[in-house]
Write a structure and sequence with these properties.
alpha+beta; three-stranded antiparallel beta sheet; 7 strands; 18% strand; binds zinc ion
Length: 132
């Protein structure tokens, strides 16, 4: 504790540069609240699960290098978090149902055919990103 007041430590990769030592695997409480404020229901088209019953999902999968920061996080219900295609389905030769991504600031489903779809639930137009 006493040394922490006087010493700064950093880790540097020889070719990638500074390493973020504060990356977290799971969203913090504040990040969860931000994600719920953005999408009041699961943003998967047709879903009705309220945000407070959703999981926090990494839009770019954490296992693929996606960061745990607000712009890479969204709520998704447990079912749609499970069927979201983060690349593993192609490796397992399973049919993709698409994946969630951020497009022009909002979280949308990209279908396997490349079409962008949002949830049309009434509460989907009342999230924080729809109010600005
Ligand atoms: Zn859902």
């Amino acid at each position: 504790g006493a040394l922490g007041d006087k010493i700064y430590a950093g880790l540097f990769h020889p070719t990638a540069g500074p390493v973020n030592l504060y990356e977290a695997r799971f969203a913090s409480g504040k990040q969860r609240i931000l994600a719920m404020a953005e999408n009041l229901v699961c943003p998967w088209p047709g879903c009705k699960v309220p945000a407070d019953r959703c999981q926090v999902h990494h839009l770019d999968a954490h296992k693929n290098g996606g960061q745990t920061n607000p712009s890479n996080l969204s709520t998704l219900c447990s079912y749609h978090n499970g069927v979201n295609d983060d690349g593993a389905r192609a490796r397992r030769r399973e049919k993709s149902r698409g994946r969630m991504m951020r497009h022009r600031g909002q979280v949308k489903l990209v279908t396997p055919g490349g079409k962008l779809l949002g949830n049309t639930h009434d509460l989907s137009t009342m999230g924080a990103m729809d109010l600005i």
